[in-house]
Write a structure and sequence with these properties.
The structure is a single chain. This protein starts with 32 loop residues before the first helix and ends with a strand. Helix 2 packs across helix 3, helix 3 runs parallel beside helix 5 and helix 8 runs parallel beside helix 9. The longest helix is centred in the middle third of the chain and has 19 residues. The strands form two sheets. Strands 3-4-5-6-7 form a five-stranded mixed sheet, sandwiched between helices. It is elongated, with a radius of gyration of 25 Å. Helix content is 38%, strand content 11%. By secondary structure, it is α/β, with parallel strands linked by helices.
């Protein structure tokens, strides 16, 4: 590829911040691994951070050749060059491309015994950088930090535009619900007490919220806010597409406040209610104030 594509281009005066001409992709060059190293150095202040990084300009040219808005999927996202290119190209031509990155959170120390001396230097430089910002030693953390810094840089460079440089990080995990595989003859009083709460103890309210979104088939990229009502945290996803409260012993005032907004869906957890009559009361409140809301209890 390096032998076939111009690094600088036929017009050496063209800036990388100029709009790409899809009818003349060679005009401003395709970039190189050296350019990619320099892009990372400018963002992270570290020389030679990644092994064989891709230049942003190369990915931008490929996207510009396609021309349309759309969702760009990168199954081996590495240092997040693809997402960086999507955000930068959107800033250049005003389009609204989106990206999905997928990356296994491989621990960097695990690759050291299997790489050459030069790559070890880069991996150790990345580990040292992550230590400096108090992050885990995974390539995912490099990608996330790159997008934060690239977004901040573009917001400064294009301060006259309202750019969308935000992103959301989701992790694949097992169910939020406890696994209960006991036959009746195996149950003891202690086991019954342990299964009183059917949600795994290490799950946060956001884990529960996004688990509900997956179950309902709601897109995971929509706006999200949270607020405190009478001491309880209330989550509002996509302006009422789903409102949830996963606190324990939720007072009736909070239930009424949620129902008054007439959300499309409402979710609570079993422990949000003191007893069965309290659950029945919730059903009655929604029947009166928001009869079309789909109410569920985890």
């Amino acid at each position: 590829m390096k032998d076939l594509l111009f690094r600088v281009g036929t017009d050496e005066n063209v800036s990388y911040n100029d709009v790409i001409d899809p009818d003349n992709l060679n005009a401003s060059g395709w970039g190189s691994n050296e350019d990619a190293d320099e892009e990372l150095r400018q963002l992270f202040g570290v020389q030679k951070l990644m092994d064989y990084p891709k230049p942003v300009r190369l990915i931008e040219k490929l996207l510009a050749a396609y021309g349309e808005d759309g969702i760009v999927l990168d199954f081996f996202s590495g240092s997040a060059t693809t997402a960086h290119a999507v955000m930068h190209l959107n800033a250049l031509d005003g389009k609204k491309r989106q990206f999905i990155l997928v990356q296994i959170p491989e621990v960097m120390e695990n690759v050291l015994p299997h790489v050459n001396v030069e790559t070890k230097k880069r991996v150790r430089a990345a580990i040292s950088f992550l230590d400096g910002i108090h992050k885990k030693h995974t390539i995912c953390e490099i990608g996330k930090e790159r997008l934060r810094r690239a977004g901040e840089k573009m917001d400064v460079e294009w301060n006259d535009k309202k750019l969308d440089t935000g992103f959301r990080v989701l992790k694949v995990d097992s169910s939020n619900m406890n696994d209960v595989y006991y036959g009746a003859e195996e149950l003891t009083q202690d086991l019954v007490a342990q299964t009183e709460d059917n949600i795994k103890s290490d799950r946060t309210s956001l884990d529960l919220l996004f688990g509900c979104l997956v179950d309902w088939g709601v897109p995971l990229s929509l706006p999200y806010t949270s607020e405190t009502i009478d001491g309880c945290t209330v989550h509002d996803y996509a302006d009422g597409a789903l409102i949830a409260c996963f606190d324990r012993d939720v007072p009736e005032s909070v239930i009424r406040a949620i129902a008054a907004r007439q959300p499309e869906r409402a979710v609570f957890r079993d422990s949000s209610f003191a007893d069965s009559p309290a659950k029945i009361n919730v059903t009655e409140i929604f029947k009166r104030l928001s009869p079309d809301t789909d109410v569920r209890v985890l």
